[in-house]
Write a structure and sequence with these properties.
alpha/beta; FAD/NAD(P)-binding domain; protoporphyrinogen ix oxidase, domain 3; 3 domains; seven-stranded mixed beta sheet; five-stranded parallel beta sheet; 23% strand
């Protein structure tokens, strides 16, 4: 008898897991609450434009995943030069920031202070390298306090919150630094690190990031599986440590027979509200302590062929309401008309703070003033604007996250045929390639027939993805 997998959420993780299990002969059903697939890897049409749901790029140090993406997208996969800059002291310099960029952006006094601080760190670490307890300490241990306070702290706290409350894991995955010897050679001798610490080029689908989930959907369908939009679970029943049935929003009830599996990629709070069993107090407390950052995407259509040739611009100063700006046609010229361009500004906040509660016009007025102050866009050149809001954008890896997440995941582990994975389901910060890998790893593990007790160890690899800027 053919085994069945039900997958909640048609993002990249869910679709990748579904494709892998379909390849292994499973009956696959992917259900998506929205009317579109891809989750945050979605591209939508707005008049003459194709626009991503925020900035995306494809670059990974996992060659096997890159090969899959090439196979999926084929000739529609563009290879693009990567250019990003960051605004420091009202000057744009290259991002990631190198030693020469620091000297260009900072005043002579600031440069001297940073170099002296960094030199002290180099000497101290050659004698005794300190163990960091939080994000702030990790940055200071690698770069010195002056660089942390002038460059890293403003950007980090604008996006994630207070640095000393953030976990070391966030720094280890977000910042790909050379080893100390490599840093010394680059600073003094100009020798580049041997490891990949930032990407000079990246890949991007010709008609938007949604091409990846769409091709995954096609592969699932070709193997007899289904991906249904506008469908969500309303209740999940359990018995004897197993998920036994899914109640759907269309009124149907779908049983899970012995050997069948349920994969959830939706937010864990949403999923636990569907269960017919109530978690214990420790699990509920740990779940409540897992925090997220929300994201407002402010799009403006500009009556100019191009604003800059950058893929991304970063704005760490607090006076700028947005922390990153993305120009869509600089990833693919096929997504915008030649005489106009579209900018997407990321505004990161909490879902309970004044920024999230601000009106559309309030945020737009502040953003326009910021664009003008940065010398990028004049108000008269803006044709229109609109917003998209994502309440579950970024998991916050604070100093307590690891323990709280493990408590929550141990509760999911009590059900032998239930897997909660992905950016939302697993509280993992990763890009498209990482989410694809999570789906493949999950599908392979399930298809292998390994006992559920081995899953806790298997999923640890999800904590070691590294973001290459």
């Amino acid at each position: 008898m053919q085994r069945k997998v039900i997958i909640l959420g048609a993002g990249v993780t869910g679709l990748s897991a579904g494709w892998r299990l379909a390849q292994r002969g499973w009956a696959v059903k992917v259900a998506e609450r929205e009317e579109y697939i891809g989750g945050q890897a979605w591209t939508f049409r707005h008049r003459e434009f194709l626009l991503d749901l925020g900035p995306h790029k494809i670059f990974t140090v996992m060659p096997e995943i890159m090969e899959v993406i090439r196979d999926l997208i084929g000739d529609d996969l563009l290879e693009r030069p990567k250019k990003g800059r960051i605004l420091i002291n009202q000057r744009f310099v290259n991002f990631p920031v190198g030693p020469k960029d620091m000297l260009t952006a900072l005043s002579p006094w600031q440069s001297m202070r940073c170099m002296a601080s960094f030199a002290r760190v180099l000497v101290r670490n050659m004698v005794h390298e300190r163990t960091a307890q939080n994000y702030e300490e990790w940055i200071v241990n690698h770069f010195g306090r002056a660089i942390y306070e002038m460059v890293v702290q403003p950007c980090t706290e604008k996006i994630w919150g207070e640095s000393r409350t953030l976990g070391v894991e966030l720094a280890e995955t977000r910042i790909r630094v050379p080893r100390l010897a490599e840093m010394f050679k680059e600073l003094i001798l100009g020798v580049k690190p041997q490891r990949v610490v930032n990407a000079k080029r990246f890949y991007y689908p010709k008609y938007g990031i949604v091409m990846i989930p769409e091709r995954l959907r096609q592969r699932i369908a070709a193997l007899g599986g289904s991906v249904q939009c506008g469908l969500c679970a309303t209740r999940i029943t359990t018995s004897g440590g197993r998920v036994t049935a899914v109640h759907w929003s269309d009124g149907n009830v779908e049983p899970l027979e012995p050997g069948d599996v349920l994969i959830s990629t939706i937010p864990k709070k949403d999923f636990l509200q569907l269960l017919d069993t109530t978690p214990d107090e420790d699990t509920l407390a740990a779940l409540e302590a897992l925090r997220e950052r929300s994201l407002i995407l402010l799009y403006v259509i500009v009556n100019k062929p191009q604003v800059s040739d950058d893929n991304w611009l970063f704005f760490p100063e607090q006076e700028y309401v947005f922390n990153r700006l993305f120009e869509q046609k600089n990833c693919s010229p096929y997504m915008a008309p030649p005489d106009k361009t579209a900018l997407c500004m990321e505004i990161t906040c909490r879902s309970d703070d004044p920024t999230w509660r601000a009106t559309r016009d309030q945020l737009f007025a502040q953003a326009v003033a910021n664009l003008q102050a940065a010398g990028l866009v004049q108000p008269r050149d803006i044709l229109e604007h609109f917003q998209v809001r994502l309440p579950h954008a970024y998991p916050i890896w604070d100093v307590h996250c690891k323990g709280n997440l493990e408590t929550v995941m141990q509760y999911f582990d009590r059900f032998e045929n239930l897997y909660s994975v992905g950016r939302q389901g697993g509280f993992i910060y990763g890009g498209v390639a990482d989410c694809m890998d999570m789906g493949f790893v999950t599908g392979d593990f399930i298809a292998s027939g390994a006992p559920k007790s081995a899953w806790a160890q298997e999923r640890q690899k999800f904590n070691h993805y590294v973001v290459i800027d």
